[in-house]
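User: Can you predict the 3D structure for this chain?
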Amino acid sequence: MTVSNVDLLSRRSAAVPAGVATGLPLFVSRAENAEIWDEDGRRYVDFAGGIAVLNVGHRHPRVMAAVREQLDAYTHVAFQVTAYRPYVELAERLNALAPFSGEARTLLLTTGAEAVENAVKIARAATGRQGVIAFTGGFHGRTALTMALTGKVAPYKRGFGMPTPGVYHLPFPVPHQGVEVADTLRALNYLFAADLSPEDVAAIIIEPVQGEGGFHAAPTELLQELRRLCDAHGILLIADEVQTGFARTGRMFGIEHSGVEPDLMTVAKSMAGGLPLSGVIGRAAIMDRVEPGGLGGTYGGSPIACAAALAVLDVIAEEGLLDRADAIGRRAKDRLTAMSARSDLLPIGNIRGLGAMIAFDIMEQRGGSAVAVNGAKAVTMRAADEGLILLACGTSGETIRILVPLTASDAVLDEGLAAIERALAA
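Assistant: Here is the predicted structure, written as structure tokens:
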């Protein structure tokens, strides 16, 4: 039966709740590497990567082969009932990659929010404390606890009642928004003086580069000071690597740019090449504080997803995707910098990013410092008209983010950047 985008859009409205938003009115028919075709047969360059899930591209042959092989063996048994080799092998690989010294342990789960929830559970069990400190602009999920950790009210918290208690927020330093590291640390001192003793804090959670918040990198100075304070007060430092992990920033994990070692780390998104898989990687002494049965999940560490993840790690190593991320980032930022100097395009600024985690802001006027509130959405819509899937983000809807698969060719990358240029000229 032939279907079209218009047909499916009508059916979607009748079948799916309004609270599940979709950025573009198109429906995917097939995808390959960094390209997507919709139900109408139109081709698009993919600069979204399923929101940072496809660092090795759509349907990488190595990933597909690993999935097919696992499908022929078994699909599910539940690790809590009978264990299986892919889970153990993946945990071993991740433990070896952990960006901290000493022995590591890995818990495998299903979603990024589930990983964050479990990281907080582990931190609370290990410390005997309840308080958790997060940051404005941070995004950690949509469940009750992760919604509380997320540092943005609309649309993630509005209408859902009072947040889970025990969560506190600090301003995330973004110099071009007027917030410096000193402001963040001053706010932390105020928090400790007015509301929360450091001896009641189980963990501080931070994204090495904020995702939904606008692709702002956490300054090394801040991460170093957080590490010092955590060590001084027995607090655990959690790096939320759900979006930054697995070569996106030019390192396997974003925290590695700072040299700061976390105690726990959450991973998901690009770990399994498009299959649902997440995890918590942590210091062994911390991870082992939870009694047997306290951690797990029916689908956690799906054998099919684990097989895919093992293939993803092979692809990252064998295809040199850490270096490729840096090369993509340089190429994209050079092109965007040239666009920012043109008077015939919408004004853009604050071009930034680590590796291939690139962003820029739509500005109110050329040469000014004020961003165009909600200015990014119109650009993403025009980009779709030009054959490019592109994402907006930022606390004020001002930011365009680029998450092109690291396996994209230079020709496809340049095609997508040319579409951004045309979208800015519309």
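The first strand starts at residue 28 and ends at 32. Residues 321-340 form the longest helix (20 residues).
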